[in-house]
Design a protein that fits this description.
Elements: E1 3-6, H1 11-17, E2 25-28, H2 39-46, E3 51-54, H3 67-85, E4 89-95, H4 105-118, E5 123-129, E6 132-133, H5 140-149, E7 152-154, E8 162-163, E9 166-167, H6 168-179, E10 186-190, E11 196-197, H7 198-208, E12 214-216, H8 220-233, H9 241-249, E13 259-260, H10 273-279
Parallel strand pairs: 1-2, 1-3, 3-4, 4-5, 5-10, 6-9, 7-12, 10-13
Antiparallel strand pairs: 8-11
Length: 296
Amino acid sequence: MKIAITGGAGFVGRHLADRFDPADVATLSRRTGVDIDDVDALTKAFEGCDVVAHCAGINRELGEQTYQKVHIDGTRAVVEAAERAGVRRIVMLSFLRARPDCGSPYHESKWAAEELVRGSGLDYTILKAGMIYGHGDHLVDHISHSVQTIPLFATVGFHERSIRPIPVSEMVDVLIAAIDGRLPKSTVAVTGGEELLLSEAVHRIARLVERRVAVIPAPVWAIRALAQVTEWTMKVPLIAKAQARMLAEGVSEAAPPTADLPEELRPRLPFSDEQIEAALPPRGGFGIGDLLPLRR
């Protein structure tokens, strides 16, 4: 079986590609010269593929990379190209709380993309995943750098909502099950094996990088303002506006209510020292290299 992976240079896409023989995988991204909304280029790349794993996505808009272009126009192009190339199945990685009419462009565009896949006529699986972590992620990576830069961390809101982080190894297990056809014509929620607060996750990560950190409550509006600043100034934002919205709502239950995975496919690993250690980047805080170049 040959598969194509959109977003193949991204966090989840890279880990998924590593599970296959390179000869059986076509990895697609801007780095490989394929724009996500270029139907002709996608069609050519999908030729001979049985399944497309649609993992392309962004959590902030930057320049031409907008939610409309990447999530909606890109998914529309992926569906059309898959139909042209004779692909049998699309497996789409979406977000746990993607839904319409909620006031978040990220959530709404992800939902619109889901609807395009559901209405495609192709066999499909949509995986509505929560927070995914592992080597190269935005969770353990950013928290570890943050606590090594400033020994202070703010919660998103005075009343914390819970998260259920998913190790990327288990997320890839679920993706492969869907690629193999074990979840046909379905939309399912994917959450991690342990439910905890972000502040608890921060303390566990800080302990492993041998830092003391004070966690203080902060209003959601202040975190959203911080998110806007870091989107303007950082190559990979400390927190994006979409992520602030996610954490304010919590990332442990699907919205709208969505079917759970079959018992045998559900992630079970806790947010343990072993899993965190596997995800930790080299020691150190944020530096000048993490900032976007000044625009003239």
